[in-house]
Fold:
Amino acid sequence: MEVHLPCPPLCEWLPRRLDGLRVGAWAPSQAPRRVRATLAAWSIVEAEAEVAELDVLLFGVSLTRPEPPEAVLAGLASGATIVELAATPLRPLRALLGVDHRPLARAAAAQSRVLQWLGREFCALEQWESVDPSGVIVTLARRR
Structure:
């Protein structure tokens, strides 16, 4: 059972969606390897003070052990959007055999992420699964 709608490659739709907005990426070098290139395409947030000026904050986490930048998130202005790129764990043997990597566990972890964002008082949540890079759960939310 698949619970996420697939989205086109991030490199195709993300720049269009964020066109004309002030966008910053938080710590691309600390993000999972699969999303580093996507994050590196945007200006890097060096200090927490810079976040208040952003319309959109992008960051990457592991879906199973997410560590969102709490201190940085606190500095976001009301109405700012976050784009969380959560990489699912890779299982090389399953990938070689063409076996899906535990879709129900992935769906439960993604649902947990949505609930966590709602608990942090974010709204207008959207969640997609990227086809390139594959297995990346994209969550968008707006700060109230």
